[in-house]
Amino acid sequence: MASDTVSIKVSQPYKGRKGILIFSLSLLFILSRLIPLFLNFEPFIMEEERYNGTIALEVLNGLKMPLFYYQHQPYAPGAMVVGLLSTPFFLIFGSSYISLKITALILSFGGFILWYIFLDKFFNSRIAIIASLLFIITPPNNLKFSLLSLGNHYEINFFTIASLFLFYNIFFSDNISSKDKAIKQSPITPLCKRGDGGIFENSSVTEVAHNDSKGQSDGVKFFFLGLICGFACYFALTFFATFLTIFIFWFIFDKKLFFKKSFLIFVVGFLTGFSPWIYNTISFKLGSFDFHGKPIYLIESGEAFATKLFRMVVTGIPFSFGFEGIKGTTFDAYLYYLIALVSFIFILKANRKYLKKLFFGIFPLKRFKTFPQEISNEVVLLVFPIFYCLLFTVSEFEVSKKVLSEAYILTFYDKFFYLSFRYFTPLFPFVFATIALFLDSLWGSERQKVLKKGLSIFILLIALSLCGLSYLKLVSPVDFGKVFLYSGSDYFIMGEKFAERYREEPLEGFKLIERLHDQYKIVALRGFGSYFGRDIDILPWFFDKIKNLDEKLKLPLYQGAANGMRHSLTLDEINFNLLQREDSKIVELSGLIEKADEKYKNLFCMELGSLLRRYVKLKTDDEINKSLRLLNHFSNDYQPKFEDLEIEYSGKDINSLVERIDKLPEKYRGDFYKALGKCMAWLLWESAGSFEATVKIIPEKYRSYLYEGAGTFAGSFFINDINRAIKIIQSLDITYRFYLYHALGEALFWKYGSNFNKAVGCIESIDKEGRRYCYEGLGSGIGYMLWWDPERIDGLLNKIEKTYKVFCKEGIRKRIEEDFLLSKQNYYYYFHLKIKY
């Protein structure tokens, strides 16, 4: 190559120091993830990832059907791949949730290391260190997503940096050898390879065309580049942004690439990596072209381009960082975003002539011929975010809607439902790299050195401090060891998969379920039944198929069928007709329920009540009248049961609310008073005296329902202060205390599940008449959390006095056999969102 370079020899002590540096950064990265994971596991719970753990368990216990049938969604095979990668961790650590988290940690750590090596090699060590610090002390959502094994979002960052690293090695390595590093002209400061020490000089830019004469080593690089790109495109759709970026740059550098041997090698590698998709589509016809039931090539944004782009830039990206807020505002998110935006604009401006050259390089004219040596290394890092944002804007992926005038207010929704920002995760590493480039350029500036070095340190400290404040909030509710209480699998979806596979012969599907471990059967059977329940037309046929099964099998199947039926229906609010969601076809449920086994008809009445509850409202006279018509309409034929009604009560005007409830049919009043009790749980916690005074207004025959409802939600308050909870319960009417003791027992397991002896000790400290209910509640918590680990349940039961063990067992049995929530667990919702924010 005809480029002027100055070599810098790297001494052994320098290499040793770099090794220590990489080790230290790696250790900090791992600790920064493990500490919040073990101290406060709740923010890292995401139900969508647990099915991937099911795949790992199935591999260990023996596949029941071909592997590709385990794929949850046809457009997201990466989830299945993550399940396979998790297999060794499930083997080592068992079937708890932690096994999935280790998989996520390893993949995110791999991406972290590759980014460090990439930035160190093609830029300089200071940039690599700054970016690494921004990876370690990072915005909350980057931290959370780095510990999720979803399989089709954050994991793609690993493939992005791996492909970019190979791409740079092929096209930008002319000035870098394995032993010596050549210093190349940078657009943002006079020195590109700054900060490494030694003598620096500007290099001349020489037009050197990339060709196929680089030998076997480049052939291997092209093959592996194709292999990574192919597999990543199979892994997740979002990698296409990276793939197109690489392809466009390659085309700009070499317009004749289609006729080159290197391109052929790349294609061979790509097809090799993409082969699972080809095999899956041809052999199993699993709709790999579909995205949420619609072909990918027909997907388009449902929002105007300019509107969506504006929202993404103004609210989408800053909220995607997931900051915890400062005094209820989004000041921290927008300040961090300002740093990132200024950095990006600065680097963009410094590279404007290269971007211009790159743009004209697209045109196949000799005068616009462009070589890698003629553009800066920063350009690719600038183009990808722009390209990704444009692709995102024209896609069907959505930006969470936020009213612009309220963008400064941080809501609970913004923090809790962070999964809605999952499509922004490919941008995070580029944000860190851009900030690092900007700060390095300030540090290396030859003008006003002291001022700019001080400014770069100040900006870095601001960015790290903003992240650090949110980090401290994430780890502050210390609850060590809770991570081992959660199931790392979702056999409900597995049951649906079995049903889908054996739709025509459900009895064959049962044979697969019978091969599962006993603890997973009930959940899989519910999933199996749910699949058929969502297809109303074949439900009677399904009832006939299962009529001769053992009762232990029929109960969860009917539970699933009833639940699936409910989710397949919606209500015509004008005529009170039940409609199928897919085609709005009117459904007559009375005949369908009649064909169900007599023992299980009540399950359909309960699920119908769950469907109708959202349409029953008591705020105004008009709402009451409409609700009365609705209840009267369905009471005649279906007798719905309202087990999970919700009523809004602010603590005021209880008399008018009681009057409204008393207008309802008498057979439903108990359900409504129970719902009122649920929303009064906060009042019980804030002021037991006010709660008791309010209860006296309720007709005496319905007070038990009110206490039962309060007990349903009280546990989420009791976990905050167990001693206070005991005092509150003991101040209540002794007739109704047992509902609250049950809630206390469940709260005790949630709070001290990882220190079970302490939970038992707390129960032993209360009065004897309340202990049996506490132990039953304790069993309810055990059943909900540990149904998947019967050996551990037995171990906990052995720690309980024989007198009360029977009550704990009954709580476990009821939870596992009767509570459908067990099948579709949402741990965080269950314990924290019973209170409606």
How many strands? Answer: 5
| Termini Cα gap | 65 Å
Specify Rg, calculated over alpha carbons.
31 Å
Give me the side-by-side strand order of the main sheet: 3-4-5
Describe this entry's structure for a reader.
The protein is mostly helical and 837 residues long. It has 37 helices and 5 strands. Helix 11 (305-320) crosses helix 14 (378-394). The protein is globular.
Secondary structure: elements and pairs:
Blueprint: H1 12-39, H2 50-61, H3 78-93, H4 98-122, H5 125-136, H6 140-145, H7 156-171, H8 216-235, H9 240-253, H10 261-284, E1 290-291, E2 294-295, H11 305-320, H12 331-350, H13 352-361, H14 378-394, H15 412-416, H16 428-443, H17 449-475, H18 491-501, H19 506-514, H20 518-533, H21 539-546, H22 551-568, E3 569-572, E4 577-580, E5 586-587, H23 589-594, H24 601-612, H25 621-635, H26 654-662, H27 666-679, H28 681-686, H29 688-695, H30 703-718, H31 722-730, H32 737-752, H33 756-764, H34 768-786, H35 790-797, H36 802-818, H37 827-832
Helix pairs in contact: 1-4, 1-5, 2-3, 3-4, 4-5, 4-7, 5-16, 7-8, 7-9, 8-10, 9-14, 11-14, 12-16, 12-17, 14-16, 16-17, 18-19, 18-20, 19-20, 20-22, 22-24, 27-30, 30-32, 31-32, 32-33, 32-34, 33-34, 34-36
